[in-house]
Amino acid sequence: MSAAILRCRVVQPGALSTVQDLGRFGYQRFGIGPAGVMDRTAYREANWLLGNPTGAAVLEMTLSGAKLEFLSAGRCAITGADMAASLNGAPAPRSRAFDVAAGDVLQFGLVRNGLRAYLAFGGGIDVPEVMGSRSTNLRCRLGGFMGRALTAGDELVALPDAGGEPRELPPHIYQPEIELRYVPGPQQDMFDAAAYQVFDNTAYVVSPQSDRMGCRLDGGNLPTGAGTDIVSDGIAFGSVQVANSGQPIVLLADRQTTGGYAKIGTVLSLDLPLLAQALPGTKVRFRPVRAEDI
Known about the structure:
Elements: E1 7-12, E2 16-20, H1 40-50, E3 58-62, E4 67-70, E5 74-82, E6 86-87, E7 90-91, E8 98-100, E9 105-107, E10 113-121, E11 155-157, E12 177-184, H2 193-201, E13 204-206, E14 214-218, E15 229-234, E16 239-242, E17 248-251, E18 258-261, E19 263-267, H3 272-276, E20 283-288
Parallel strand pairs: 12-20
Antiparallel strand pairs: 1-4, 1-11, 2-3, 3-10, 4-9, 5-8, 5-10, 6-7, 6-9, 12-19, 13-14, 13-20, 14-17, 15-18, 16-17, 16-19
């Protein structure tokens, strides 16, 4: 019944704020990676809270969030990291749908827990679909809001919001140590038992050099014998690549389409949201599982 269309202006963009959905698939053979949200759990929750269509685009904010001035009324939902969001100076709800009016100001600060926050608008963010997705691919300058991160002065518009009953979920609390389940391979024959012994028993630490392309981990070097160079092959979200340095890198949403280093394993998609919310310094442990047991 309702056809409210929300509009807002970016006053401050935050450290890295991009429009994302689940990603752009089917084009890796042309060198175009999927991109998409890093934390699919928080993304799905944000859209569920508003009754948005599956695949609606949201705003992903990393480390510190944006300041937005609303130009019209509408509905919003915030999920993921706690960025001390405030609405007109008062604490804004997390993991609950809420209303905004023209003139309202929603401001996010520096993360207090987690790493990435998600802001959904009722109806979803209205940017052009490119190859079936509204996600921003920063490396290709493709999709999202003009293929780039938001800057001050940008205006975001939502698609029509059908409305719905208020929904609420418990906010996530992210921990300083996480466990990631993984399936060994696909190049497991290049790693002997000693390498897996190190990999499965090391408390790695998330490096500050991590980004949307990959999470670099510092910790025990993996024995690599004759090295880890291979003929380049495809990369999945969660592939754990090991360079000749012996340090693992978990490849993420903005990963390259192919890679020339052996992969010791692949992190389960169910656990990747934990890594998406891991600040530098977070401890990471790996636990092997068999595909047939998942």
